[in-house]
Amino acid sequence: MAAKILQIDLAHALPTLRINARRYDAVWLLVKFGPQPLGWVKFRTHQYGRVLAPDQLAQLLSDQLHLQVHDAARNRAFEPLSNAYTPMVSVVVCTREHPDVLERQLNSIALLDYPNFETIVIDNAPKTDGTKNVCAKFPFVRRVHEPRPGLDYARNTGWQVARGEIVAYTDDDAVVDPRWLTALAANYIDPQVACVTGITFPLELETPAQEYFEKYGGMQRGFYRRVYKPGTWSAFFPLGSGRFGAGVNMSLRRGALERMGGFDPALDVGSLGRGGGDLDIMARCLREGGKLIYDPRAICFHQHRRTMRELRKQMFDYGWGFAAYCAKYFEDIELANQSAGMLRRWSRTWGKRRLTTNLKLALTLKPHFPIHLILLEIWGGVLGLRAYRRSVRRVRSESVRFIKKGLVRAAA
Amino acid sequence: MKIQIEQIDLLHPWPRLALHDGYRAVRILIRLGEIPVGQLMMRPVRKREISHRRLRRRIAKVHSGALLKAIAKQGLLAGPDALESFLPGAWPAHVMGRSDWKGTQKYVEERILLPSGIPSPMREWFQTKQQDEQSRLAAGLAPRVPSAPRVTVAVCTRDREEILEDCIRNLQQLDYPDFDILIVDNSSDPIPTREIAQRLGVGYVRCQVAGLSRARNIALGNARAEWVAFTDDDCRPEKSWLWELVRPIGHDPDCRCVCGLVLPSQLENAAEITFEIYGGLSRGYTPRVFDRDFLFASRLRPGATWRIGAGANMLLHREFVHRHLGYDVDMGPGPHSVGGCGEDTDIFYRILAAGFRIHYAPRAIVHHFHRSSARALRKQIYSYAVGHAAYHTRCLLKYRDHRSLVQLAWHLPRYFVQNLRGGLSGRGKYPFPLVFLEMRGTLRGPIEYGWRKLRRFVRERLLPQKKATFHVQTIKHDQPPAPPVAPPSKPRLMYDAHAGEKSQRAA
After folding, report:
1. Are A34 and A69 in contact (CB under 8 A)?
2. Contact B411, B301 (CB under 8 A)
3. Residue ranges per domain, chain A?
4. Contact A47 B84 (CB under 8 A)
5. Which top CATH class is A89-309?
6. What is the pTM of this model?
7. What is the ipTM of this complex?
8. A vs B: CB pairs below 8 A
């Protein structure tokens, strides 16, 4: 079970696709029209044989994406992105002991077509010299050492040392599209915009674990650009903030980060919170009065966990992190009168989408997402509810230790 | 009640649509040049005329999706430059389809469906493409499809000389460059049919024993081409029929069968209309590819091979059927077989199970005259039910497909109950008196199939074999027929394309 990921651009003539049918049993065809991604066309390899002629490809596309094609053509989405507004952007890659994937990511950053950016690699609590050696190969990279372990410590250091007006975060296990920064930065022309997120596609679907993760929802949030306006924050706070995007493809205005006091070190990987730091900062951006834009033209590819073991851990951590992030706002008085209704609505939609649908599929012997992973996520959520308080206590006691050791920089 | 049949080509200005005397409704085929988009039933209440405004609204409501799909496909094929200028813009930038289906319909109604034809850049593109093809064809130049193999069009006929001649004359008008026509004569009296064949100069083969499966086997055995297109004597194919049928072959080397769209050519009485409501022979307006996964998609339901196509409009690969021992002569219509349409679904099953693919090409259109008397219709629907049940029995016994048992024991009864309840409560449109007929046929099917097979077993394995003679008679072949494919190492008794001995004995 593996799927091949291919890309086609409708701004060029339709190609003849050749598929290695022996290795892959499905093809996920990412269709773009200029910079705009339109959607996926998925088919099984042996449904069409080795070679897919343009005629059949046009049939497939018109069957599955005809409305998107019409839409993109009428709204002239194929036009190249404007280079009118190019503020200075700091690309921040937080990494901890993944030199091989980091090199891949830095290679893709070297190909960005944006004129005005700097690259900062935050080397988080390193044990070996791997990251340092990789960064030495790329002269444009500024490596910053962050001794405190934790993703949100690293992210905070990132915006503190950044020189750009805008800070774009991405992960070391991802690869960015050459037009990524252009698409992100074009949205900041409106001074109200505090946060812009993008779409994240799978880099590969070689194993069942990766395919399961992608079918579960993955990191895509749709192919349409969405603008979330400041007055609407309460509709998404805190439960619905998953739709804004993911931390792998996220950019913020540095001024807004300064105003909000940065990321919460009690959340996300490395702390007891285990996750949710990106959800927290996006939701807070909206709440503090900034606009949030989800723009699918900012594309990045993420390599999902390859083994089932890693996927199990990830699902558990997702549940845990989400619960920890929600627990942060238990005592928020502004949310008191609407939280019960929101919880009810959210649990209905979430439960229906995840659990009920997959149970039904399982009972009718159809392919479905593994039920034990869903239960694991729920169980993680139950256990994670109490994690936030402990995490805050841990962060406080740690900070004393960090100050004693002299690990905290003066600016923080 | 009579229903008028009309066509609207969206590339040209729409004609005035009025009901003729005696008709109460009109069934309109909507097409975009050669592409059928869909059909529409309209019943003007007060006036006899259908206004273009009303028609536009109905088409937009029912066929927006299909129309946008057809246009998108042509735009994609035309290339990026065309796609950019192809679509009429200047519409508020709502997002189509996502949440605003009403807006999409309105867009189609006001921007695409103009009574003078679809708007300008698109129409010109379509028209130049059409003219291009026609001029190329007239000059006898390169084919417009990837491959244009030689095709034998086989017409199996039985005692219907009066419509056969018309059918053959129609077939001779086809614009395909390389095809020949073969009449397979299943009649009780060979003389009139042979005369027609001689007069019109087409191939003629006599099938002594009545039965459609036998006739088809003989057609496959005597065809001079590698691909055999089947149609019936009551069918009128369109001019570009063969072009559209062979189009998928060039793309797909694993294609062994192509099916096309069968539309009613008239709906003049209750029997014909009822047959259309019952399901008819058309299988939709979207091109599809069927493969092995379609057949084995579910563990509880058999793959719906009966939804693939109809034997009245079908292109088959001769070699494949030879390899797989031909049609089962105990299935299919005829006095010596089970009856109904089980023989086609059986071939579809074998093609898919062998890992090959079947394409459904709705652009290959055939107009079919349905049975016009109530008695014939009842007989046909009964035999369809018998054939369907026999097909499932065959799948169960021969191919060991347990899902067919589930279909016979659970899905079919449930379907009958549904149709009965719908009909009795007045909600369903299905002609529910036919359900009893279908139930009887379904009960009869397995018994009939078992009886035929038992009889064959007793005659061929237990009784002594008679000496046989060759009884296939072929005339009017300027070339010798294609050499028959070597028979499989272990000859089975089912296939008798060249072995006239069996047909002789059964006679």
Report:
1. no
2. yes
3. 3-74, 89-309, 312-394
4. no
5. alpha beta
6. 0.85
7. 0.84
8. 94
